[in-house]
Amino acid sequence: MKVVAFKRELQGTGASRRLRNSGQTPGIIYGGTEAPVTIALDHNALFHALKKEAFHSSILDLEIDGKAQKVLLRDFQMHAYKQLVLHADFQRVDANQPVHVKVALHFENADVSPAVKLHGATISHVANEIEISCLPAKLPEFIAVDLSKMDVGTSLHASDLKLPEGVTVVTHGTNVTIATASVPAGQVSADAAATEEKK
């Protein structure tokens, strides 16, 4: 994905406010061997790009003055109640250095799992994203989570995920729970009552 930015010379609160009033968003690029560079981006283009999941977990081609560099979106600040992007941070990436990125989890096949099909259970998504490490070229847009084997009372953990080649989960020493399957309390009592009636 391509992002066009402009170098920003003036800094400070007043300069940033004037920039936002003119339909632009202040930002910064840092990392790598070069010094950090303050930039300005078209607000509307950035606002719409932020709505795309891929924008948050893809290597972006950020172009400044006709020169492109590979970056990752690292952070952004939104206005408390206005649809306004206040600031965006981008980090330069090196093709030979692994990156640590949070990517979205896409849950699949819950409807065919024994938990749902046989027991009317609910599968709860405990995590919606996970931190991974990989080379920039191997960065997936999302990680698919197959729920087809889940049964009641079981949990799916980070170690159970099928990861693309060259991708590892950054666990920070814990095997994070991704999803759990449980029968809703009302369902349990209704089933118990039905069993009692049959006796």
Summarize this structure as a short list of keywords or feature phrases:
21% helix; four-stranded mixed sheet; Ribosomal Protein L25, Chain P; 2 domains; six-stranded mixed β-barrel; RNA Polymerase Alpha Subunit, Chain A, domain 2; 199 residues; alpha+beta; elongated
Task: Set down the secondary structure blueprint.
Elements: E1 2-7, H1 13-21, E2 24-30, E3 37-42, H2 43-50, H3 53-56, E4 60-64, E5 67-78, E6 85-92, E7 99-108, H4 114-119, E8 122-125, E9 129-134, E10 142-146, E11 155-157, E12 168-169, E13 177-182, H5 185-198
Parallel strand pairs: 1-4, 2-6, 7-10
Antiparallel strand pairs: 1-3, 2-3, 4-5, 5-6, 7-9, 8-13, 9-12, 11-13
Give an account of the 3D structure.
With 199 residues, the protein is an alpha+beta fold. The protein contains five helices and 13 strands. The protein folds into two domains: 2-92, Ribosomal Protein L25, Chain P; 99-193, Ribosomal protein L25, C-terminal domain (RNA Polymerase Alpha Subunit, Chain A, domain 2, Beta Complex), CATH 2.170.120.20. The protein has helices spanning 13-21, 43-50, 53-56, 114-119, 185-198, and strands at 2-7, 24-30, 37-42, 60-64, 67-78, 85-92, 99-108, 122-125, 129-134, 142-146, 155-157, 168-169, 177-182. A six-stranded mixed β-barrel has the order 1-3-2-6-5-4. A four-stranded mixed β-sheet has the order 10-7-9-12. The model has no long low-confidence stretch (mean pLDDT 88). The termini are far apart.
